[in-house]
Amino acid sequence: MMQQYEGNSYLFGGNAPYVEELYEAYLNNPGSVPDNWRAYFDAMQHVPAVDGSSRPDVDHSSVIASFAERAKQGPIRTVSAAADPEMGRKRVAVTQLIAAYRYLGSRWANLDPLQRQERPPLPELDPAFYGFSEADLDTVFNISNTYFGQENASLRDLLNMLRDTYCRAIGAEFMYISDPAEKRWLQERLESIRSTPTFTAEKKRHILERLTAAEGLERYLHTKYVGAKRFSLEGGESFIASMDEVIQRAGEQGVQEIVIGMAHRGRLNVLVNTLGKSPADLFEEFEGKHADDLPSGDVKYHQGFSSDVSTVGGPVHLSLAFNPSHLEIVNPVVEGSAKARMDRRGDPHGKQVLPVLVHGDAAFAGQGVVMETLNLAQTRGYGTGGTVHIVINNQIGFTTSDPRDSRSTIYCSDVVKMIEAPVLHVNGDDPEAVVLATQIALDYRVQFGKDIVVDIVCYRKLGHNEQDTPALTQPLMYKKIAKHPGTRKLYADKLATQGTISGDEADQMVAGFRNAMDAGKHTNDPVLTDFKNKYAVDWAPFLNKKWTDAADTAVPLTELKRLAQRVTTVPENFKLHSLVEKVLADRATMGRGELNLDWGMGEHLAYASLVASGYAVRLSGQDAGRGTFVHRHAVLHDQNREKWDAGIYVPLQNVSETQAPFTVIDSVLSEEAVLGFEYGYSTAEPNTLTIWEAQFGDFANGAQVVIDQFIASGEVKWGRASGLVMMLPHGYEGQGPEHSSARIERFLQLCADNNMQVVQPTTAAQIFHLLRRQMVRQFRKPLVIFTPKSLLRNKDAGSSLNELAKGGFQTVIGETDDKIEASKVKRVIACSGKVYYDLVNTRKTRGVTDVAIVRIEQMYPFPHKAFAAELKKFANATEVVWAQDEPQNQGPWFQIQHNIFESMESGQRLAYAGRPASAAPAVGYSDKHVAQQKELLDTAFAKLKGFVLTK
């Protein structure tokens, strides 16, 4: 047996964490470990630490490395001749047995309510694996330093304790966590109570009441609205008890706001039984009632809701985020909303705000945005103090029940191991265990400020929706489900057997709930109707406002000069890079009015003027601090200091003593999660200019779901306003298919109902006024800005300081060349973006005097009056040409031509000048790019040919 142990035990062969635990125990008390290990650790004191010290508690890295090397050689032999070699071996084996249950116990846990899961062969959980025999079961060992809650125990009792703790209704996974304090906390919490709840009779009755409400609502809806889709929770009713515990315990811990994200399964149940939505209102929705003020609206199981509920710790505000059918996409939105609430409260660690994400098992394992969102958890710009994740694990996902078809991991939750989040798997048929796991999760989050998962293993009584017949593909599983009495019935019978409830009390609960549903009322209503949350945002000033392009965005010249001085000043002895030093020197000259402002300075003055006026600014994206094209330099780095906190300076955070916050974040390399996060932030904070900048505009493709389902349609579906700004670098500079186009056509295709703004500004003054307009106007709409690349340093795109001190954002910029006489103009070229400067230079080079060029800076909402007014200036023009860099089937052409045509005079002809249609957004060959650009410009000034539309 010992040979098998040496050759096969997973604790050897390089896997040394359990040895590290022994070492930590040794450091606390050398006498607590077996003699042979103590002798080995004594010898380790002479191993030099990283700093040269011989003290073992200075740095563990060299010691741990030694463990790993020593582990490859097999178990340590007895060192002391005086010690009992056999007893020493057994003491070590006991420690290994405990470690094995901590590592692998979840694999043997009783988690499946349907009892379909077979225990895998795990010899490491068998005492015989370590050389123990039946005769050893009553041997007493000192386990005070290796197992919490017990000083001495026989091997028999220890096995019972380990199996109770790790192999019953809760299966815990946490030994992959690298922080010893977190592991010890979880070990102590679980082992001290053997993972067994000890609730009062009152608590148990409350749990039963929650199960009754959960089951009762589903059965009531199933009877009253036969065949209607609702994505039933039946089979997972313990989830409602878990949510109730989340709210009550979080409130007790000082949480004042909880932001919840979940998909369809059980959502209607949460709306009624957790957030307190009126059952009567829900029934009306089933019967066809809808909001008349929403142009689109949405189905019942996508709806959000907010309420205030009472807890022992005081009122808690609950917000259930609106959610589209795209699974898990709500995750970053919830995190962003939670972050905005934290910032509003001055709560950097999330002590008062809690994000809760509810997942389905298949989606949790299958959707990439889950990983992207998890990756935000401990970052400075996106951390929310830990998220409680709850998985409604019905073991079948959509239609599959074989994990080989739904994931490549043992558990659906294995993705969270990337951030070392612990997982508590729990049997959904044991609601007390579910509540206990929830309590531990909340307490862990408070203690460590990190994510944790409660995986409720349950089943799905009905199909994916109520019109589905799952037995078609899962006959054996659904035969078992058909025989299952239901979680509520099992728990009610258990309480009756215990004497906790009387024989008919459970039936009375069921009848009482049914009567309440008939009356459209709640049976348990903790909702507060008169509570006023002082941190709530009043959206009323921003809603139901008519669209206007007008806004007073000018800033007095003296204030602009003051702001310019502030954003170009650095602390004494702060060493700038020579290139940055020149940038700031040039900007200082611009700020004095001695040089035209470039794009970066126009942008800086917009931010500076906003924060000085009390509007916060939050800017995030890949390379947002310096800008992808090194034009921004919002974050300055001391060339003589490497430490981040000491070696950076952000001038926009030092505009004035009473300014609003300016936050700039170099984001993780994610588009979907980060954009979703910023959208969520913007929906919870209308007084912050929230900006996401793509590294290249093309990369917004990776966040298309957020754009389609939230940014473009959130207001018409859910009445959810947002002032989010997207900055998408766009421009045909010969950099190939993935570095040219931000897909203007896709955004314009999404435009309707004045849902958002699509803009391509071409001067420094324009970006200044545009950004200020976004906050100064008293309504909030998403703003998509196609920002330039080459224009960032193009002197022709510069603006004077006076242009910022007067005027405002121009939706259309007419002909600016005084040499072009309006009466002689025969053709008007309309365009947007960088191509304007190419057209102007071509006209100048060729000496053309009868062509006017008009820039459409705002493509949606289309500025009909302004554009028509420009066309009317050229009464003799018979031709209008739309010119664009993009291929004909892309860019604005097909989405904007009807707007141009509408503004034309009778008899005028409309034509296109641009690249030919293409499957890719741009060519990758430089010579072909140049040839296409030449052809574009030739066409813009040549005779009309090809597509010509006459009005």
UniProtKB/TrEMBL annotation:
| A matching Pfam family | 2-oxogl_dehyd_N
Cofactor requirement:
thiamine diphosphate
Under catalytic activity, the entry for this protein gives:
N(6)-[(R)-lipoyl]-L-lysyl-[protein] + 2-oxoglutarate + H(+) = N(6)-[(R)-S(8)-succinyldihydrolipoyl]-L-lysyl-[protein] + CO2
Question: Which terms are listed as keywords in the entry?
Answer: Glycolysis, Oxidoreductase, Thiamine pyrophosphate
Enzyme Commission no: 1.2.4.2
GO cellular component, alphabetical, reads:
cytosol; oxoglutarate dehydrogenase complex
Q: Where is each Transketolase-like pyrimidine-binding domain found?
A: 597-794
The answer, when asked if Secreted is one of the entry's keywords, is no
Query: Sorted alphabetically, which SUPFAM superfamilies does this protein's record hold?
Result: Thiamin diphosphate-binding fold (THDP-binding)
One MF annotation (Gene Ontology) recorded for this entry: thiamine pyrophosphate binding
* Signal peptide range: none
Q: What class of enzyme is it?
A: oxidoreductase
Q: Which InterPro entries match?
A: 2-oxogl_dehyd_N (IPR032106), 2oxoglutarate_DH_E1 (IPR011603), DH_E1 (IPR001017), KGD_C_sf (IPR042179), ODO-1/KGD_C (IPR031717), THDP-binding (IPR029061), Transketolase-like_Pyr-bd (IPR005475)
Query: What CDD domains does the annotation carry?
Result: TPP_E1_OGDC_like
One record GO biological process: tricarboxylic acid cycle
Q: Where are the transmembrane segments?
A: none
Q: What does this protein do?
A: E1 component of the 2-oxoglutarate dehydrogenase (OGDH) complex which catalyzes the decarboxylation of 2-oxoglutarate, the first step in the conversion of 2-oxoglutarate to succinyl-CoA and CO(2).
- Describe the protein's quaternary organization and the partners it interacts with: Homodimer. Part of the 2-oxoglutarate dehydrogenase (OGDH) complex composed of E1 (2-oxoglutarate dehydrogenase), E2 (dihydrolipoamide succinyltransferase) and E3 (dihydrolipoamide dehydrogenase); the complex contains multiple copies of the three enzymatic components (E1, E2 and E3).
Q: Which family does it belong to?
A: Belongs to the alpha-ketoglutarate dehydrogenase family.
Q: Which protein, by its recorded name, is this? A: 2-oxoglutarate dehydrogenase E1 component
